[in-house]
Sequence to fold (484 residues):
Amino acid sequence: MTTATTPRPFWLAGRPATGEGTLDVTSPWDGGTLASVSVPTPAQTEEAVAAAAAVAREFAATPAYERAAALDHVHRRLAERAEETARLISAENGKPIKWARVEVSRCVSVFRWAAEEARRFNGGSAQRLDSEPGGAGRLALTRRFPYGPVLGIAPFNFPLNLCAHKVAPALAAGAPVLLKPAPATPLSALLLGELLAETGLPAGAWSVLPVPNDAMAPLVADPRLPVVSFTGSVPVGWSIRDAVPRKRVTLELGGNGAAIVLADYSSDADLDWAAQRIATFSNYQAGQSCISVQRVIADAAVYDRLVPRVVAAVEALVTGDPADEATDVGPLISEDAARRVETWVSEAVARGARVLTGGTRDGASYAPTVLENVPPDAKVACEEVFGPVLSLTRAENEEAAFAAANDSAFGLQAGVFTHDVQAAFRAHRALEVGGVIVGDVPSYRADQMPYGGVKDSGIGREGVRYAMEDYTYERVMVLTGLEL
Fold:
């Protein structure tokens, strides 16, 4: 990718704009500068907020077909520019091109789902009130209305699709949205702005503002932005919630996903499948996914047969240049991120963990790593590694496996490899997570399903319709004097 000499504009109330400062976007792979991005001034940020607040009532009242048409346009244009967009994601984020293409396809689906939900959401419900004498002749109609403009704060690991999960539901629900992309990866969000600018959405309905992280407090506190949707770290997420307790705040704060392999999952084909899925999805974003496999908890009956399969599958992954079609695992977002992972692994090893494969760093790249005998209170076990590191643990039975999975401050998703439908329902009841994936890793996510967690994994749900519900509230109207 060629380096841009002119700073790229941001999007202010639907139009391109430039500020007084710039931000350089660098490649995690080779450290080269990819582009310079213009940064909004405080006055421009204020203009964006004022524009969103000014248009909020008008936008909430727009016909569903108009919002749906805009969202349809974005999903079609993203599909047309899919390869260009995937290469942009790969360049700024460092994820292998094969996974960048998957991200684009998912984003296309998010906007398609949003267009469909815009058409059918808020159809309203009717409730007869004459079930009691005082309600004779009365009918309650309930509809949903936006709280107001949404502040969407997105992370670096899915620089396009997690922006889509802020923008698309807000626009579908009729709520203006201010998108704040991660400073390391703003280019995908700015490209999304190009596509939104091609639509007929009213001025003020959306902005893309690559403001610095340390300039976010006034935006979070601004009463004209009653909804904050944040994806990112635990400390920042809860600090937002604590700072604005009267706002509608949704948080997706990560996890340390467990893949549980039960005793019945014991054939060679079963274990080969589990090992391949575990290896792939502990490393597919260099481990930088909230639902990557961080812990494997296997029943003692299958543990010894599973371990060599996992190690072999991890060692078969191709690491290297994210632009190479053969690469499975690219660099982390920065060398600092890789150093942190290296420090955490070293800490675990010093306390008795054994490295079965990997455990080395080269710049921003960290080798896919499998650990055994990890102390349960080591960082790589109890915190979110956000790197290509996997810990293996033996459990004596199903109950012990579920207890080990729950022994975590996080609760996003868990995977349970079993053929026993009763065990699946026991897992669904016992596991303290937002999602239980049966027969696969915790890393599976369909963008239309409810997605979110409990405990330190956050509050609220993504998934287009579920986010729309978080961004809106019910308002009831009672009609009187009717002949029902």
